[in-house]
Amino acid sequence: MRLRSLGVALVATAALVTLPAPMTATAADIPLSQGRTATASSAENAATPSGNAVDGDTTTRWSSAASDDQWLQVDLGTTASVTRVVLDWEAAYGKDYTIQLSQDGSTWTDAKTVTGGDGGTDTLDVSGQGRYVRMQGVHRATPWGYSLWEFQVFGTTGGTTPGGSCDSANAAQGRPAAASSVENAGTPAAAAFDGDPGTRWSSRASDPQWVRVDLGAVRDLCEVDLNWEAAYAKDFRIEASSDGQNWQTLKSVTGATGGKSSYAVSGSGRYVRVLGTARATGYGYSLWEVAVHTGTTGTPPVEGGGDLGPNVIVVDPSTPGLQQKFDQVFAQQESNQFGSGRYQFLLKPGTYNGINAQIGFYTSISGLGLNPDDTQINGDITVDAGWFNGNATQNFWRSAENLAITPSNGTDRWAVAQAAPFRRIHVKGGLNLAPNGYGWASGGYIADSKIDGTVGPYSQQQWYTRDSSVGGWTNGVWNMTFTGVEGAPAGNFETGPYTTLDTTPISREKPFLYLDGDEYKVRVPAKRTNARGVSWPANTGGTSLPLSQFYVVKPGATAATINAALDQGLNLLFTPGVYHIDRTIEVDRANTVVLGLGLATIIPDGGVDAMHVADVDGVRLAGFLIDAGSQNSDTLLRIGTPDGNADHSANPTTMQDVFIRVGGAGPGKATDSVVVESDDVIIDHTWIWRADHGEGVGWETNRADYGLRVNGDDVLATGLFVEHFNKYDVYWSGERGRTIFFQNEKAYDAPNEAAITHDGIVGYAAYKVADSVDVHDAVALGSYCNFTADPTIVQHHGFQVPVKPGIRMRNLQVISLGGMGQYRHVINDTGAATSGTDTVPSKVVQFP
To answer: Where in the sequence is the signal peptide annotated (predicted)?
Structure first.
């Protein structure tokens, strides 16, 4: 249970709650801080000095004077990548405090803020680099001071240690440069990094001004050489940054006299900046040359940017044989359901005439404009089901994004099933979601799109549309859900298929690749609250990240290199391919973007987990597939840490178009598919699937007990598809969870009732809210059964929740597919049983 935002009563008694003690470091895990030099703002007396907190002895302690605003800091001796800080509090503990990092012991960056602490042992996951680490107290919990038995800092060192070597080469020469201003066109920023002492950068005649260089990757920095022209800086700082936005001071200089100077520094960064704060003359700042020297660690840095790899097809309207390119990929991918081919079409802005881009498995098509209307297709983007005799229920794993389509006959066809998102599309006509001949279809998802004409789902069983605009909607089968959709039909769930909410409570569009001139960038849209309609063309808020800030992952990349890139501060752009990894991908830095193209697929080998995300703000996971390996993984994707309870409401982590598969392409196993530990996470369209067909399929062959487990508080799911797990498909134990639209099928291959009977109940609920939960809200949920191994199975219910005032479940239905098994109730012991072979839903409009 998380303590945040549980109401006044709980806050008033929070000090009385004892949380389970987190796991402490083992004896072999020696802190970087142990035995290092420690200082403090004060000490209570001579017996409680600062050094006691880093001596490794849990019977000695540091304690401060009895006032707020006290601090303790440790000098690690060299720059470190800090990943964890453990505070072992004495009875006089900090209620509110901040963990801070610094390169020089004077300029500090917040790495973790704790409010409402309850003493004991605090284990904090942090992400940042620094030589100095500080606990800055804000409010005490007792009348005494702050008191720590031990203050432990964990991480890795890779910087240049005292006495280490400093490379004589200039890492800045020829690298991209920028400046706050230039005096004229003849004195650009690049002139300070071109290796030519006869060219220079000069600024406008005002304070402050800066010039910076991008080294291409985070490097260990040991020396910076400056060669000033006559217009020099009297006072300036040399700074470093991993992202070009947050800066740490490496050296602060006052009273400088110009000329040539070399400065020894200790720190790391991708960007190095000279920031002038006071000029020595009436002119601006002027540098002939800036040279940056880096530590020699023996491991070359991972470079950001570069080409997009062999399976990304970039085209423009003049590309010869364009239709043939689409046809060639489609011929290979049309029925290649479990193959290894992965492709991404990227269309540069412009107008494409007479195109019919048929989209098969693991194929994505995207425009490269900032807005959908920048890329116009006078033709079609088509998904049909000819390969499967007109049955579209297996048209998985494909996507279309950021385009405008004027359909050749007035209506475009997008007959898909799960894991086939349709995002940021402007259809200048109608949209048909059914296959030719109106065969079966089981989709689907639309977001941030504008369809000028009518959407016709026809045979589609279910569909979720979010933050869009439609000219009309003709019909529906079981579950058609709309939130924030202009033109959506009125809700009629009691008698029909529609659930309609006027707005989406929280949404944030998926990151996407686009061209800014000739430069690739990734747009990271801003969070919206109570959204309605599309986010474009205004594109308000959000940021754009250059491709140079991404490690462009290509086939053959290893997990070691991927993690090294993350450690350097790079984001990840997975190009189309299948990536076998032998260690977990660790995403530890706030605001990291992990974006896939062409359904890039990650397969964990040897039983490792595929990906872990730390309990940090604003990580963006989007557009990739995790496929379970043959050896059981504990958890394929974990977001947050079990002991994490930080407030991420202002900047939540998002999981969008991230799909999970267990079996189908071969035997695969995982106890948990996705576990969400962090608070405030947004799950926006996922399909978490234990395979019911393909290779490696069987009750024990592709064993996977749980699809989605949510332990974090205030988690929102919009467009949740989870199917066929051996136990619970969704198990929700976090407080104040919300789900809008849920589609589920129970496991086809349950061998008999005995195999799924637990606690006197036949069958695991498709969606269970834990008995401990007090507040939960879910709307538009459907569960279907198709017990092909034993059609006599009668599942007790589709949904199971505690009956409490804060539990609100609306618009629920269960369906027997052709009489292959039945449900006895809809939710708990409420709702009529299904019966017969007519595939008629049994509904509950509101519970309790």
So the answer is: 1-27
Catalytic residue among 229, 723, 735, 745: 745
Closest CA to 172 of 292, 302, 305: 292
Q: What is the pLDDT of residues 544-561, one digit of tens each?
A: 999 999 999 999 999 999
Active site residue 494: no
CB atoms closer than 10 angstroms to residue 126: 25
Q: Report the C-alpha gap between 808 and 450 in whole angstroms.
A: 31
Q: Are the CB atoms for 463 and 469 separated by under 8 Å? A: no
Helices (H), 355-471: none
- pLDDT tens digits for range 484-532: 999 999 999 999 999 999 999 999 999 999 999 999 999 999 999 999 9
Closest CA to 421 of 169, 658, 229, 639: 658
The single-letter DSSP state of residue 64 is -
C-alpha 267, offset from chain centre:
28
User: Whole-number mean pLDDT of the chain?
Assistant: 92
What does the alpha-carbon distance between residue 33 and residue 272 come to, in Å, rounded to a whole number? 27
CA distance 133 to 119: 20
Summarised one tens digit per residue, pLDDT across range 763-780 is 999 999 999 999 999 999
Q: What is the mean pLDDT of residues 582-604?
A: 96
Is-contact 415 433, C-beta < 8 A? yes
User: pLDDT digit string (tens) for 612-670?
Assistant: 999 999 999 999 999 999 999 999 999 999 988 899 999 999 999 999 999 999 999 99
For 231-289, what is the HEC assignment?
Answer: CCEEEEEEEEECCCCCCEEEEEECCCCCCEEEEEEEEEEEEEEEEEEEECCCCCCEEEE
| Region of residue 724 (phi > 0: left; psi between -120 and 50: alpha; otherwise: beta) | left
Do β-strands 411-413 and 37-40 pair in parallel, antiparallel, or remain unpaired?
unpaired
Buried b (16+ CB within 10 A) or exposed e, 319-343: eeebeebbeebbebbbeebbeebbb
How far apart CA 133 and CA 33 sit, in angstroms, is 9
464: phi then psi, degrees, rounded to nearest 5:
-120, 130
Q: What is the C-alpha separation between 613 and 763, in angstroms, rounded?
A: 32
* pLDDT at 299 (0 to 100): 63
